[in-house]
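Could you help me review a protein record that somebody else here produced? My question to you is simply how this chain folds and whether the tokens agree. Thanks in advance; the entry in question is below:
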Amino acid sequence: MRAVLQRVTAASVSVDGAVLGQTGPGLLILLCAMQGDDPASGRALADKILKLRIFRDDQGKTNRSLQDIAGEALVVSQFTLAADTSRGNRPGFSAAAPPELGKALFELVAEHLAAAGVPVQRGRFGAEMQVNLTNDGPMTIWLDI
């Protein structure tokens, strides 16, 4: 599994002008299932996201987790995180999981976060989406599990 986490003060995702999901302070999670990923990979990624200490404490140090701050999450599928740009100028996406598996793992990660008490909103798997965010910091983290 691969994810880009962006610490945000606010984020939203829309399809055809209609807002599907939005979040206040917390994380925008761009998520990609890769070839060979399985439910254990999805749970491991969600657990890492829950425990990652990337939010400021009272002294301004990045010492708190998403759960510590009672933050929210907006989870958006993004298969283009699997891009292979090692040859030529056109990215290849063969490292991405097949759509059926990608969707199942996308849902699994979102549900695992929600089961841990994080308010979760989602984009629409496979849709052309418009994502708006206010990056806090900026703080952007790349995760591979």
